């Protein structure tokens, strides 16, 4: 089975970054990861890689600094160290306000990387098509693209980060290289919006994952566990979304490995139903252990799960990141974000350790019903 890192921080030329020459300080690639993926008209695969670009020296003069976009410029905001909590290397918390407030140690932008048809090697890196912040609601970055092709149109959801809101934004394209920003489609904290690759009953459908600090308990003895879960929404035009009344995929009480969950790949239609790869997080340390799981959803009513497994489909692979161990800042994280049909197998794209892009070939028989 092919299972390799295909794109890492070392593969990025920061002299061609949207931030190049605009920050006033040295930067480096904290991670090149969580790639949205789709198949181009020429048969090749396209990764839309999240590039987290960070300051080489974020702590200086008793302050920790964050990069922020404003009116076409990239600024460095200084926060006194005594005001913040820096336990998580990806962000710092600003306590004391009665609710959680944070800033990021990097700013993310999206880089289109073209692979061959099976995702084994890089064909081209399209720096001229990179997507960077361009509105105030993206001032802390554009993160975690997920790409779906519905009919002849490519739709890409992203997470846009700012003090204004933590929202989901939509881009559209005719070729998956030139993207038009359509604006905000979910105006609440939502990290994982995945548009189904096909209409259901003439409507667009999407998996969503609203976040919050409060969840109500299921009754004692329930098969479900309270916490972040995967919901569903419907839309007539992919712009205006109504939450579906029935829940989607929920954490199961029988395992703590999926105590927190969220969407992974845009659902694709198979003979059995909609195949959805999603992530489950087992509480552990600061970040948790991220694994990839799968479910098959009813083709006419995706709130109905036809098949699933408690055993993970993918786990973090330390052997892959061993050559990059000096750059690692988290471990036990695989975050699957793209899937493409390749005949007898699926090409699956993931972020590995919030550091690099991993491609795995998974046989279609992995999703067959038990004999």
TrEMBL record:
Keywords: Glycosyltransferase, Hydrolase, Transferase. GO terms for molecular function: glycosyltransferase activity; hydrolase activity. InterPro entries: Glyco_hydro_beta-prop_sf, Mannoside_phosphorylase. It comes from the Bacteria. It holds the Pfam family Glyco_hydro_130. The keyword Nucleus does not apply. The keyword Lipid metabolism does not apply. PANTHER family: GLYCOSIDASE (PTHR34106:SF5). Belongs to the glycosyl hydrolase 130 family. This is Putative GH43/DUF377 family glycosyl hydrolase.
């Amino acid at each position: 089975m092919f299972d390799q890192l295909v794109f890492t921080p070392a593969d990025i030329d920061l002299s061609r970054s949207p931030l190049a020459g605009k920050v006033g300080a040295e930067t480096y690639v904290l991670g090149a990861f969580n790639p949205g993926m789709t198949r181009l008209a020429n048969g090749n695969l396209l990764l839309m890689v999240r590039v987290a670009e960070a300051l080489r020296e974020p702590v200086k003069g008793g302050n920790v600094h964050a990069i922020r976009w404003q009116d076409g410029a990239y600024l460095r905001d200084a926060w006194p160290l005594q005001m913040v909590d820096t336990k998580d290397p990806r962000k710092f918390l600003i306590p004391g306000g009665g609710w959680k407030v944070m800033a990021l140690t990097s700013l993310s932008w999206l880089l289109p990387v073209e692979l061959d048809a099976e995702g084994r090697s890089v064909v081209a890196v399209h720096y001229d098509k990179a997507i960077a912040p361009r509105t105030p609601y993206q001032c802390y970055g554009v993160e975690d693209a997920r790409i779906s092709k519905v009919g002849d149109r490519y739709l890409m959801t992203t997470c846009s980060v700012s003090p204004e809101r933590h929202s989901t934004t939509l881009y559209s394209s005719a070729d998956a290289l030139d993207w038009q920003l359509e604006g905000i489609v979910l105006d609440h904290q939502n990290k994982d919006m995945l548009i189904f690759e096909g209409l259901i009953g003439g409507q667009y459908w999407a998996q969503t994952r609203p976040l919050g600090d409060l969840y109500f308990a299921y009754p004692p003895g329930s098969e479900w566990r309270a916490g972040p879960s995967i919901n569903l929404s419907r839309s007539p035009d992919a712009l205006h979304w109504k939450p579906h009344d029935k829940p989607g995929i929920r954490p199961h009480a029988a395992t703590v490995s999926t105590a927190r969950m969220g969407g992974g790949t845009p659902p694709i239609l198979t003979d059995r139903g909609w195949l959805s790869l999603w992530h489950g997080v087992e509480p552990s340390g600061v970040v948790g252990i991220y694994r990839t799981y799968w479910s098959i959803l009813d083709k006419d009513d995706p709130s109905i799960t036809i098949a699933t497994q408690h055993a993970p489909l993918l786990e973090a692979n330390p052997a892959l990141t061993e050559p990059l161990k000096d750059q690692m800042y988290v471990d036990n994280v695989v975050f699957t974000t793209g899937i493409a049909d390749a005949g007898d197998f699926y090409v699956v794209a993931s972020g590995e350790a919030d550091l690099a892009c991993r491609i795995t070939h998974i046989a279609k028989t992995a999703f067959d019903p038990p004999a």
